[in-house]
Amino acid sequence: MIQENPTPSTSTLALLTNLAHDQRVRGAPLLRTLFVILGLALAIVPLWKITHRPAKVIVPTTAPQTLASEKKQLCLFTLTLSHTAASIQIKNAAGTVLWQQIESPNTTEFSATLTHIPPTIFLSITWAPQSSPAGRYFAKLRLDPPARASLTHTFDSSTDIDDIWELP
C-alpha cells in the first residue's frame, strides 16, 4: 500500500472543508451568519466614527483690543498740497474733527499729529481762490504710526477734495 503525502494546498483545503462540517461548531448556519454580520457591524462603528467626524466650526475671533497706552500714542502725519488751501479738515467716520487748518498762510505742506488712527479717514479741502484755475488738485497724506510702516495715499480732484481713505 502506497500512501500519498498531501500537498500543502490540498491539506489546507481539506482542513477548511472539515472545519465547515465539523460537529464541534454548533448552531444553525443562519444564526452563525447573523453573529458574523453583528461582529462586523460592531467593528465598523468605531471606524465610521473616526473617519466621519463632523467638521469643526471655526468661530471668528475679534481683533485684540488695543491697550490704553497704545491709544494714547500720537501719530505723526504730513500733508502735501498742490495749491494753497482755504480750509482743511481730517475727520473720522463718526464725523469728529481730528485735525483742521483754516486760512492757511500760503503754505502747501503741513506736519502735525493725530491722537489716534481711525480705520477710515475723511479728508476735506477747500482750495483758496486763484487767478487762473488749475487743471487738477492733489493732496498727499502720509501717516507715520508708531511701530508700523508709513502709510501714504494721494487724493486728487478737479475741484475741492472731499474724499475718504480706508486704512489697511
Descriptive overview:
The protein is α+β, with helices and mostly antiparallel strands and 168 residues long. The protein has a domain at 68-166. Helix content is 24%, strand content 33%. The chain has three helices and eight strands. It has helices at 8-20, 29-51, 68-71, and strands at 75-81, 85-91, 97-102, 109-114, 120-127, 137-144, 151-157, 161-166. The chain has a four-stranded antiparallel beta sheet, with no helix packed on it. The longest helix is centred in the N-terminal third of the chain and has 23 residues, at 29-51. It is rod-shaped and about 120 Å long. The mean pLDDT is 79.
Question: What portion of the residues fall into strands of 2 or more residues?
Answer: 25-35%
Outline the low-pLDDT stretches.
none
What is the gyration radius calculated from CA atoms?
42 Å
Q: What is the CA-CA span between the terminal residues? A: 99 Å
The biggest beta sheet reads: 4 strands, antiparallel
Number of DSSP-assigned strands:
8
